[in-house]
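User: quick one
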Amino acid sequence: EVQLVESGGGLVQPGRSLRLSCTASGFTFGDYAMSWVRQAPGKGLEWVGFIRSKAYGGTTEYAASVKGRFTISRDDSKSIAYLQMNSLKTEDTAVYYCTSYSSGFGMDVWGQGTTVTVSS
Amino acid sequence: SYELTQPPSVSVSPGQTASITCSGDKLGDKYACWYQQKPGQSPVLVIYQDSKRPSGIPERFSGSNSGNTATLTISGTQAMDEADYYCQAWDSISVVFGGGTKLTVL
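Assistant: Done. Structure below.
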């Protein structure tokens, strides 16, 4: 079964850091780009960023709202994608979803999400 | 920055056809996707590349994209189709989501 499981969410103070993990199973993780999408309470979906597969350089792209503060990385040997979040703001409070990603094809596998709350 | 606009809500009677629109500048020149999200659940891809259905998505879901508007059509709408629907497209390398449409089946 194809599955993505996020972990690492929690309550964090503004200005602090948090790292989310996304563990994949049921498919060849290294062959796929991976994306992070977030959803603030009661709001719509917001793209955070994605990381290409190593075959395409393993490079990253980010939304303007998180560029310079968030970093996506991957460990293909462990089938894990990471989202490192620094200098967190209250407006980063959201459920964070990990997804598979393909340009032009969309996001066909989603994790269950992990909740990040940024508050003092 | 590129924007996608959806109506906040759409209502449909059971068995009827629901149409949800997504508008953006020259959207027809880009690929559009659609996601369904039910309360408390993760989104599910229901349409990709404008009109293709992933495996497991019922045939009553269809999509089109032309000009400035992409449309998700649900034929023979069922109560189980009540959900939020989000369109998504690409602006160069960036991913853009519409604001979402709440589909009510009543």
